[in-house]
């Protein structure tokens, strides 16, 4: 009996599924697929017309057939010209949306807007209908009797054009919603929340020890870019096959330079194995929240900072951004700082470095303190956020409360140093006093 090694097949399938997942975020993915379907359907209708479908319908259901050659040509020509105009207008609106989002909010939100599936499908409907109408027009015989006219195909082009007009109306409605900053932040929040909840659900909440990795073998990066994704399934298969323990050195989403360590493994040094291990790491020049929830904190923080810039001066948007950050931080406090991949027996095979809660909270608060410390309204909102986190009963690690207390002290110092008005100082001190009253963490504010 022939033996078959499933490992190469599994690794290949992992890479195929991951590649398809990344392609889905490209703006041309769905338009290309739907346009191809429109082209295939056009050739299918040409084949049916050659088999006499229009002749049959003229005899049995004449209402379903456009019988006049000039009418058919006029309709199709008008549809083609109209669809080109609609497509140009729609693409212009998309570019305006991306430009405005980049200048008013943050360039980091662009990948999320580009990957909007609804807009991709609408653009695909336009293009597929356009291709269908072009090939149907070409198939009209220049001479001959009425049965040589693709009458049923022309009727279908009217249906498709009606569908395109409906999609255009929906597109105008959708684009007007997408440009609103609250809609952008809400989508960022929901994507990050879903990703965080998935990680927390898959997390095994028990103490895990991982041995010292300082003397392990290294796998170097063979290219430069952001670590977009890690194929943990393929990495675990290699670990089990070769009896390895693995540490992923950079944090997911970090920018990695060629030639620096990306993996450490415990086992015999093997260049072929190192090449296979390195292939499980995907590099990219773009970042998506679906792959890395940390991006949501960065993007919402950047929107808040941009709103507080002198050119925009929109404290209301900053307050809304802090509300979303509060909910995300509260959810992050239910997650462990260390992440592991376990085998079926519960043994830690892979150690995954992640951004700690302390580092995450400090990075966000440092930026907000720097750019918002002059606004007393924003300061009150930040104190309320820290109060909510301090009172969070679902916290996984009590050390998180100590981290929150430390940020309260940092915010208090910056706030008092940047305000000389007695009324403002009184509000800051009252916020601190309220925090002391509700503080039950055991750490002194």
At a glance:
The protein is an alpha+beta fold and 445 residues long.
Write a structural description:
The chain is an alpha+beta fold. Among the domains are: 6-179, no CATH class; 293-336 and 355-438. Helices cover 62% and strands 8% of the residues. It has helices at 6-23, 29-50, 53-60, 69-104, 110-114, 117-138, 151-178, 181-202, 232-241, 271-278, 294-307, 315-332, 357-372, 376-390, 399-417, 422-438, and strands spanning 217-220, 225-230, 245-248, 255-256, 261-266, 281-284, 339-342, 348-352. A five-stranded mixed sheet has the order 1-5-3-8-7, covered by helices on one side. Strands 4-2-6 form a three-stranded antiparallel sheet, with no helix packed on it. Strand 7 (339-342) and strand 8 form a beta hairpin. Helix 11 (294-307) runs parallel beside helix 13 and helix 14 (376-390) packs antiparallel against helix 15. The longest helix has 36 residues, at 69-104. It is flat. Mean pLDDT is 82; it is low at 1-7.
